[in-house]
Structures are given as structure tokens and as C-alpha cells.
Specification:
Layout lengths: L2 H12 L10 H18 L4 E6 L4 E6 L6 H15 L4 H7 L23 E5 L5 E8 L3 H17 L1
Antiparallel strand pairs: 1-2, 1-4, 3-4
Length: about 160
């Protein structure tokens, strides 16, 4: 499948999402497929997790030979992005020693992630309907893959 075909699939799934109030499995599948393709192109064996607006997992996909630890990390990045309504890279700034949210990663049964790779996903009304969490590469790779996922999801 080429980039144009993949983009077409993602766009078809999310085209009429203005009224969608929660993540669906079809949206999550299309999104994960696009992010996995990009991860493959940059040489990352990623785990992609997509949650709904209540931070409940809708989908988790593990690329072949991905890190076992990336499963929980990806899930928790998606959880964090919905629960705190922000990307995890942004939270990392707020959670540094001396910052206002220092220590937040020790709350919520340790499910808060304070490094990049999680992005909230919004419908066309700007309402958060879910999130994506990506783990398996470096922090910058995970951050870029999650941002890519958000971008294609929200423009679709």
C-alpha cells in the first residue's frame, strides 16, 4: 500500500468526524496503520496505543520485535494525554524539578508519563475524543510519530 492509498483510507474513516464524540475502533485502526507505516520507514519497532475520551484502550498494536516494555508505556502515554488534556512532551516541561507539576508521575497508580510520545486527539469541534501513545523509539522518534498520528487524524 502506498502513501496516497493509506492517506485516502485514513481520510475516509475520519472525514465526517465533526459530530464524533468518542474514538471508534475503525478510526483507531486506520490511525495505527498510518503510524506503523511511518515507524517502519524511520526504522522504529513501535507499539501504538489509541484510547477513547475516557482514557480506555480502544486498540494496541505491537510491531514485530518491539520492546515488551513499550506496551505499557504506549498505553500510559495515551492515558496521560486524555487524562491531562495535553501532549506528554508538554507535561515533561511542567514536571521538571522545581516546576508546578513536579512528581505528578507518581500519581494515578504510576500511569502518568512525563516524556514525549502521547498526543490527545480532537474532533473538528476541538473536543478531545481520545489519544494516541507511541513507544519503541527514542523520545524524539516517539514524539514525532505521535505528532504525525495527531496531524493525519485531525486533518482527515
Amino acid at each position: 500500500m502506498n502513501e496516497k492509498e493509506l492517506t485516502g483510507i485514513v481520510e475516509a474513516v475520519v472525514r465526517d468526524m465533526a459530530d464524533v464524540s468518542n474514538m471508534t475502533l475503525d478510526m483507531a485502526l486506520a490511525l495505527a496503520q498510518a503510524v506503523r507505516k511511518m515507524a517502519s520507514e524511520i526504522g522504529v519497532k513501535a507499539v501504538v496505543a489509541v484510547s477513547d475520551r475516557g482514557a480506555n484502550p480502544v486498540l494496541v498494536q505491537c510491531m514485530d520485535d518491539s520492546y515488551i516494555a513499550s506496551y505499557d508505556i504506549a498505553l500510559n502515554k495515551a492515558f496521560t494525554s486524555v487524562a491531562l488534556k495535553m501532549p506528554t512532551w508538554k507535561l515533561s516541561e511542567l514536571a521538571k524539578p522545581g516546576s508546578s507539576l513536579y512528581g505528578i508521575q507518581h500519581t494515578n497508580q504510576g500511569k502518568i508519563v512525563i516524556f514525549g510520545g502521547g498526543e490527545p486527539l480532537c474532533n473538528r469541534k476541538g473536543e478531545i475524543i481520545g489519544a494516541i501513545g507511541v513507544s519503541g523509539g527514542s523520545e524524539s522518534e516517539d514524539t514525532a510519530l505521535a505528532a504525525y498520528g495527531k496531524e493525519i487524524f485531525e486533518k482527515g
